[in-house]
Amino acid sequence: xxxxxxxxxxxxxxxxxxxxxxxxxxxxxxxxxxxxxxxxxxxxxxxxxxxxxxxxxxxxxxxxxxxxxxxxxxxxxxxxxxxxxxxxxxxxxxxxxxxxxxxxxxxxxxxxxxxxxxxxxxxxxxxxxxxxxxxxxxxxxxxxxxxxxxxxxxxxxxxxxxxxxxxxxxxxxxxxxxxxxxxxxxxxxxxxxxxxxxxxxxxxxxxxxxxxxxxxxxxxxxxxxxxxxxxxxxxxxxxxxxxxxxxxxxxxxxxxxxxxxxxxxxxxxxxxxxxxxxxxxxxxxxxxxxxxxxxxxxxxxxxxxxxxxxxxxxxxxxxxxxxxxxxxxxxxxxxxxxxxxxxxxxxxxxxxxxxxxxxxxxxxxxxxxxxxxxxxxxxxxxxxxxxxxxxxxxxxxxxxxxxxxxxxxxxxxxxxxxxxxxxxxxxxxxxxxxxxxxxxxxxxxxxxxxxxxxxxxxxxxxxxxxxxxxxxxxxxxxxxxxxxxxxxxxxxxxxxxxxxxxxxxxxxxxxxxxxxxxxxxxxxxxxxxxxxxxxxxxxxxxxxxxxxxxxxxxxxxxxxxxxxxxxxxxxxxxxxxxxxxxxxxxxxxxxxxxxxxxxxxxxx
Amino acid sequence: xxxxxxxxxxxxxxxxxxxxxxxxxxxxxxxxxxxxxxxxxxxxxxxxxxxxxxxxxxxxxxxxxxxxxxxxxxxxxxxxxxxxxxxxxxxxxxxxxxxxxxxxxxxxxxxxxxxxxxxxxxxxxxxxxxxxxxxxxxxxxxxxxxxxxxxxxxxxxxxxxxxxxxxxxxxxxxxxxxxxxxxxxxxxxxxxxxxxxxxxxxxxxxxxxxxxxxxxxxxxxxxxxxxxxxxxxxxxxxxxxxxxxxxxxxxxxxxxxxxxxxxx
Lengths: 604, 264
What we know:
A: 0% strand; B: Immunoglobulin-like; elongated; disordered C terminus
């Protein structure tokens, strides 16, 4: 078992895996619970986030129920809040969508991409035996638990969980008198957010260090698979953006608990309560919040883009079209991502001249996204496409990202945004990016790397059924939201049908809710397939997909230390169907091949 | 499963995306699931821009989704005769598909600036027609009264029932007493957040008489959904008559209002 990488002998830490006590319980704890092995931590993240995915999905269904049939008795769940006679109270509804977004963003998407896939894949794909800082890595997982508890407990405190929207805008969120659940619920929300931030920060420091210092011999930066490039740039984004959110979170916590007035102006009277000290500005929070949360949008999509890029090449049996432009466009998205946050604030009362600046930078950030899409199409062109479940999810990522990307241009155009801001048009947009995009990318990744995670493959037939149903229902749910948005149907309203403008939209909303129910129900197939395959699926060899990257040279699943021999890298990750080579893929570790070298030189 | 039939099935599934996508947008207006009737002078420039972007993104959407379908159909492994094409990329293509979108996006960016400036930056030089103060969960209105000046003892106070004259610039001074709200007039293509501690000007010119919704578009608490008002657009004569009636009514019901005690 290799415990040292040839490039960085100073960073070895093999003892961490072997030095612990070997006896019963403490051995179990150090291996499976407080493990410092990146693969175990990755799977811990995966299981936790998938469970929260279920919670977030059920919250979404409850939201959809109220939007489709306001004030009607809620089936099953209705008994849990019987004091309203089975109906949903409006404050309960605001709590539902707040916690749906909070759970999905902070407990599912960010940790499943960076925490689960980042942890599992980074050392394996760069040829390292583990992360640079295994203890920090372990802590990055365990710091999620205070967040799980804070968010989870907030449902049960007086007034319920946070209900100021996931954006938590003051003064609704800072003034305790402003809503029934603005008491402990909101405070716990801020505490949870801080711990998620600590976890992300520990992770991103680790990822950057590992990718820079612990690559296998021969693994230059421009031989890294796109997944790793995406994880690397995501880590940089997190490291630079997160401190701002953390600081803002503390300021809001102080406003709520210590009576400071960072975000409340003088004489701000909410609900006839005594005004606080004042002297603050509600817009300050929005600037600080979006300074993090806009880059966070890219934190939530870039890793999926990277994984999809890799999966497309494997199942098209073709090199990635335009590797370097793909790397540069990710970097471009990340760079521009820091100067577009104001597009969330076009209607906020921010100086409209400043809005023009943000509008121009926002238009420009569509460019690298377009370049990526064209390169994905170029990758499929002339390929030999194998329609595996993983590939279907990856192709649907491209198809759906086109919709999500294009709809963004409507909101970027400030005059159009006047009408569609805070309507279902934006709800459609970010669900196309985050659900139809990222979640589909995550499924592509799960079906693809499942054999490496558990040594067994998932059932392809049921995988395709899962894909088909999810694909149909997600479009039924989310595409129609564009139409609601075109009518101006506002988001976050417990009941909008008493408005003359919106009263005729109930049937469409009911249709969407049926689709949403179907979408969540389809996930039962996924859960069953996942659990069954973990224990009883057909055994996978080291490289079931004939892929090129380093993780496929390791055993499935890899033991401690990952590789049974030190991988040495001779080429980039995408040498598929190389002319003059007898097999259709050349792994990164395959010995140098003259025909391949000639072909590569000719292709450039 | 890797048969030709499976390949055709999956390709056709993805062909549904552009077909149904276009169909939904084509059918929606016929069922009145579309932009509500516009009654603002600046509305056509916003709606025009919406249609312009819809056409542009629509073309890109159709072309890229059709390419995706076509590649799935044509390059299905089950009917491939040889290996995949070994190609690492194309410098020319990268340039083409960088420069053309860049130019298009820059054009949209510049093209729309004027419309934005008209609605949000070129404020008419006049004193406010009415002050709108948002609070949980109602729109409090304050008309200048007979002296034409806000903040004087004869101001007229109303709730949720906004009247404005047609064919004239209307300037609203937007404030919030408690939390964020957003003053959304779907038919007038107006939206502006109301922010505690700020006085934000909002202006428009209505082109037709009628009565329309005022919606709160920024989450403001549990009663957010019911923070509903009405805006009535009427001719100058009707508007003046209405103002007089309201003024008389206010004086009759609460004579102290004139003393300005309720002003703040």
